[in-house]
Amino acid sequence: MRTSGAFETAENFGIHDHLCCAYDDTTEFYARAAEFCRGGLDQGLRVCVVTNGDGASLHDAFADDPWLSGSLDDPAIHWVSAEQMYPAGWCADPMNQVRRYIAATEAALADGFSGLRVIAEATAAGRIPEQIEPLARYEHRVDRYMARHPLSALCGLRRAEVPPESVEQIASLHPVASPGAAQFHFYTNEEGVLAISGELDGEAAVAFALALRRAETAAPSGELVVDARGLTFLDHRNLSTLAALAARKEVTVLVRTGNPAVGRLIELLNVRGISVECKA
């Protein structure tokens, strides 16, 4: 299963996991990056380190790591600049960026690796308000691919340079994020189904509405399944947002939940377009 929730350490994550590291101090990001890199090499993954002007510092941090110090020249680790991986104008077509990572994953598999692991510092994109929309769309789309293919990633956002609302919007599109970065997580589970975990209260309402809009969900069968078994709280405002999606898409939203309180709220309000399936 894909991991969801908050994380303190980037060790022990699998080949489909997707993390957002919202950090205050660069040493914090370097430590999480080193942990994530070690885990990737242990699992036979190619590790692609995308640097944003901090390549030397990150390289030095890895050199100080007892486990990684002897692996810096290992062909399993690729050091790539942000300019190479995210060329000018990339945000005009977020799906094209996803295709870059699909190709890189397939290349890693062809070279005998068990998949691809990416460590990317995304602060440069996150600090520009006009790029939040395409960045969010990209994050959701690449997460869909990760759910069913051996691609995992750790994305870094420096809090001092990225507006708090932008951190929340981007972090919430990762199944795993730093403590306090996101109240909820909107992602694709291992079955390829939309999933929500965490809490959806009034403070999360704006970010949740944006996440739903940016996901551009499709339900050709007329039913959109949402796995909400990881959701611990859902209020009427966010439920109304789901109902609005159902009306806009002319579909039924089937909410799977193992939380009786969530199921009772949906049944009590009898919101049109939403049905409930209790599933542990």
Nutshell version of this structure?
The chain has 280 residues and is of the alpha/beta class. The chain has two domains: 5-181, P-loop containing nucleotide triphosphate hydrolases (Rossmann fold); 194-278, STAS domain (Transcription Regulator spoIIAA), CATH 3.30.750.
Secondary structure layout plus pairing:
Layout: E1 5-6, E2 18-23, H1 26-42, E3 46-51, H2 55-63, E4 77-81, H3 82-85, H4 94-110, E5 116-121, H5 123-126, H6 129-148, E6 151-158, H7 164-171, E7 176-177, E8 184-188, E9 194-200, H8 205-215, E10 223-234, H9 236-249, E11 252-257, H10 260-269, E12 274-278
Parallel strand pairs: 1-7, 2-6, 2-7, 3-4, 3-5, 5-6, 9-10, 10-11, 11-12
Antiparallel strand pairs: 8-9
Helix pairs in contact: 4-6, 8-9
Structural summary, described in words:
- This protein has 280 residues and is of the alpha/beta class.
- The chain folds into two domains: 5-181, Rossmann fold; 194-278, Transcription Regulator spoIIAA (2-Layer Sandwich), CATH 3.30.750.
- Helices cover 41% and strands 25% of the residues.
- It has ten helices and twelve strands.
- It has a seven-stranded parallel β-sheet, sandwiched between helices.
- Strand 10, helix 9 and strand 11 form a beta-alpha-beta unit.
- The chain is elongated.
- The chain starts with a strand and ends with a strand.
- InterPro entries: MEDS_domain, MlaB-like_STAS, STAS_dom, STAS_dom_sf.
- Residues 193-280 form the STAS domain.
- This is STAS domain-containing protein.
- Pfam families: MEDS (PF14417), STAS_2 (PF13466).
